[in-house]
Amino acid sequence: MSYFATRAAACLPTFDLTFGQAVAYARSGESINLTAVAVSEQERDDPDGPAVVESGRREFVFSAAAFAPLAWPPAPGDRLIDAAGVEFEVLPQDGNPCWEWADPDRLTARVLCREIVGS
Questions:
Q1: pLDDT tens digits, one per residue of 48-61
Q2: Number of domains in the chain
Q3: Which of 76, 96, 99, 102 is disulfide-compatible with 108, CB 3.0–4.6 A?
Q4: What is the DSSP string of 65-113?
């Protein structure tokens, strides 16, 4: 493991505690609780004006090690429920897969989600 990866791994618990929120991650009746960082809402460019935030689209980043109780990797149709009780479905978006590594050493995963309306 590189020096950067070693230092990043040491910082993950502090990062999670500072910026993370408790989420429930569910698949096929199984659920785990983990700490995830809501990275952003997706923005789209409007050629006639400023960027517009598309409601309901969210990216979550979490430690890959925290995901261990469920089969890796995250899959389309998985569900996340954030600390406010808002439910999201893991989905591929805009031609991108539903998840990707968030760092080169594969310590954290970024998952693309869309809010489930009426949740």
A1: 555 444 457 888 88
A2: 1
A3: 102
A4: GGGTTSPSS--TT-EEE-TTS-EEEE--BTTB-SEEESSTTS-EEEEEE
